[in-house]
Here is the input.
Amino acid sequence: MKTILKILQHRIFIAILLSLILIITIPFNFKKYIAKKEQVTISGSNLNYTFFVDINNNSYSEYYEFNHDKLGNREFFNLLNHSGGIISVLNLQDFLLPRSVIGFNDFNHNQIPELNFLSFNADSIFLNIYEVKLLDQNKTNQVDTIIYFKRKFISTAHYYNDVLDIVSDSIRFADLNNDGFDEAILNLEAGFSLQPRRIFAYDIKHDSLWAMPREATMILDFIPYDLNHDNIPEILLTTYSPNNAFPENIIKEFKKETIDENSRQPNATDIPF
Here is the structure.
């Protein structure tokens, strides 16, 4: 009996007993809350971006200003003159793709650079090309007409933890089929969802989309360059396996003879060093 009493009076036993009492009783003294998802915001960005470009070739830079409304439900580009006056407003049908780049290029050789950017809607990725002509080459406050606008579907992507799991680090321009007009070349890189990881080239003149074979690794960057002087630029890639290896240099080429004239879909072929 004395042994049992000694155990009951021991400080370790008392500490264990008090801990059990607290564990059992404390939860009932607090209100229980259930965390649930009320809304998923799919707005492309919370930031504003400004891109300077000379639209009418008068040595004064106009600029595109990316913005969105306060609720994040609508995104748009304002085209402004060098004095800050609004020339044109481009309302996006979708949302600007987060972690993507903006590119300018004069593919139709009219000395008016087009605005190229990626957007997304749900799981679909689009390339947008926008070009305007000013009313008077000596003025920068009015728009004559929208020369060109194209919204081209590129690929689908996947969500991971309710976030669109895709990055586009680069957009380049080069004439890949030697027809005198540049294609828009871009990469799409998925993270945990793995795909797509590949380079796409959009033939603007023929409204055709080309795609290289899927990559297992991620594409860090790329440049088009004609290494063998056949007037068809090769695509030089820098790829890497996340947290696994150093970047690896790879050369891909859109071979001229493999272009299907019906679909204009070239096959990408590995070119050995």
Q: What stands out?
A: The chain has two domains: 41-156, 160-273. Residues 35-46, 255-273 have pLDDT under 50 and may be disordered.
